[in-house]
């Protein structure tokens, strides 16, 4: 559920899937400040295939996407239009990831996933489960809590619809209290229901220098501790561990405008975007090139 900035697309995907599916998932996750432009790679295969698209074909496909981004049909993309498109990309990726994970876990292909099916897919058989680390055991426990919460009809199975909040709880308000509880269980060492600075930095504080500690203290005080009482509680904790898609989209929009608005008029013409197509196919706006490979989906909408 977190982010980071421009590595190679392949490296980004590998890193983010680990973060997204293990750390952020029901644990404290990466802090929001570690993100930039890296949370939406589609798949390694799609990203690698984009590298082989001829430039003119990449531009043609990007042009098709622009007609979908351009809500008022003025052949320009303003900040609101670009931000809305990036948020749409987020939703598409969530749906794609959830479907892929559901199908991986649905071993008997009956259209629903039992806890045993998910556990075997994510953690291995009972024999393999016996060798889990303490961290993995904690993740397994939290997964079970999330599974039960997502199982709305309490039949012991998750449908495709129920699997989405299970696999992406950070995007579903009714799952946020569970993320909060899991974070407190992980970080709240004195069990006071809040997280002080020492709990915030955890064991990392013992392995970093004074400059790092001062930087983290400033983040704690200025970004997360909204009421300045020296502790994080409730929504302050959630603002730390759960990324805001709206904030991420706004930051990516700022990045793309800074890179592509050649005449500095605070609006992007189609020509400016196509002239800077390499920037856009490396961003959330095209799901790191994935949208260009799935362009038929968008052509069908035209």
TrEMBL record:
Name of the gene: calu
Main location: endoplasmic reticulum
Assembly with partners or alone: Interacts with PCSK6 (immature form including the propeptide); probably involved in the maturation and the secretion of PCSK6.
Residue span(s) of domain EF-hand: 93-128, 138-173, 222-247
Subcellular compartments: Endoplasmic reticulum lumen
Function: Probable molecular chaperone assisting protein biosynthesis and transport in the endoplasmic reticulum. Required for the proper biosynthesis and transport of pulmonary surfactant-associated protein A/SP-A, pulmonary surfactant-associated protein D/SP-D and the lipid transporter ABCA3. By regulating both the proper expression and the degradation through the endoplasmic reticulum-associated protein degradation pathway of these proteins plays a crucial role in pulmonary surfactant homeostasis. Has an anti-fibrotic activity by negatively regulating the secretion of type I and type III collagens.
Gene3D superfamilies, A to Z: EF-hand (1.10.238.10)
InterPro entries: EF-hand-dom_pair (IPR011992), EF_Hand_1_Ca_BS (IPR018247), EF_hand_dom (IPR002048)
Molecular functions per Gene Ontology: calcium ion binding
UniProt record, GO biological process: protein transport
GO cellular component, one term: endoplasmic reticulum lumen
Segments crossing the lipid bilayer: 12-31
Protein's UniProt name: Reticulocalbin-3
SUPFAM superfamilies: EF-hand (SSF47473)
Domain of life: Eukaryota
The keyword Transmembrane appears for this protein: yes
Key words, A-Z: Calcium, Chaperone, Endoplasmic reticulum, Glycoprotein, Membrane, Metal-binding, Repeat, Signal, Transmembrane, Transmembrane helix
